[in-house]
């Protein structure tokens, strides 16, 4: 039994936008948390058709609702015009709404009523380690953390269907791009870029589009919650620092599928890349659920010395290694970071069997790190 950590507490008193990538489990969570509220599902063709023709039906059906009554509208981006009716019902009848979707992009592009700040934004993520009894790291690194994918032994076919569904429902139906073929090539290039410094010209060259188009495509991935950026830590001390952000697809399993890598084994470079991606995914979810803004960055000097994750204002620096025994040379990045930011807590997340300390560097096994993270002991 998987119990999600996120409980959508904001909805107890406020209206909320509740965004998350497809199949993260938004609908399942809402039906568990709010089993008895009125629920409109715009994925149902009959529901979509009647409101698209007569959006005022929503007001007519709900205007006799009591003050504070909660209503859920699923996939609100499919009919942004309903937000005018939602706004009226919030202001004039005191109703509360949970408005779900996989993207705010269409809402912003269409210039619709975004409720004038009357709805808080919440983001839902794929599964996290703390939600899974007997968490299996190797399964997570191979299948990813979308519930339908993690729970099977081999998620390859489901991942194929997921990517195809994303292209059809998010890109084609929402008319986000004019050339689906170029966007599909771009998606493969974006997977190659996942976890790397983002240079738009390089990606553009790989997929045969302009740098301007490549940048716009990355914005689509982020707006549809299919990827996220990690900015560079640029507080200058003694060194010249890289300014470019890093990009990650939102789920390591999706990255695996697009890169055609499977059956990852400890000791391989691919396993190491997947481990780094997974830990970043956990950090993003942890800080997202705890409503910290702009906490995660990475650090890289012009000479190539790098730290995978920096938390806060150089409060914590984290390196991610798939080694079963971290060696001194693998601590170079953290030691250099410590020279510039001596106050920082230094952590290496690894496959070491036991926790240990090397001078001022903590070496923490992956599972212990994940436990500490979700207990609030890392930051």
What does this structure look like?
The longest helix is centred in the last third of the chain and has 21 residues, at 269-289. 40% of the residues lie in helices and 18% in strands. Helix 9 (180-193) crosses helix 10 (200-207). It has a 6-stranded mixed β-sheet with strand order 9-10-11-12-14-13, sandwiched between helices. The chain is built from 15 helices and 14 strands. The protein has helices at 26-33, 45-53, 57-62, 82-93, 105-109, 137-143, 147-150, 156-172, 180-193, 200-207, 211-223, 252-259, 269-289, 332-340, 366-374, and strands spanning 15-20, 38-41, 70-74, 96-101, 119-124, 196-197, 227-230, 246-249, 296-300, 306-311, 316-320, 345-350, 356-358, 361-365. The protein is an alpha/beta fold and 379 residues long.
Set down the secondary structure blueprint:
Blueprint: E1 15-20, H1 26-33, E2 38-41, H2 45-53, H3 57-62, E3 70-74, H4 82-93, E4 96-101, H5 105-109, E5 119-124, H6 137-143, H7 147-150, H8 156-172, H9 180-193, E6 196-197, H10 200-207, H11 211-223, E7 227-230, E8 246-249, H12 252-259, H13 269-289, E9 296-300, E10 306-311, E11 316-320, H14 332-340, E12 345-350, E13 356-358, E14 361-365, H15 366-374
Parallel strand pairs: 1-4, 1-5, 2-3, 3-4, 11-12, 12-14
Antiparallel strand pairs: 6-8, 7-8, 9-10, 10-11, 13-14
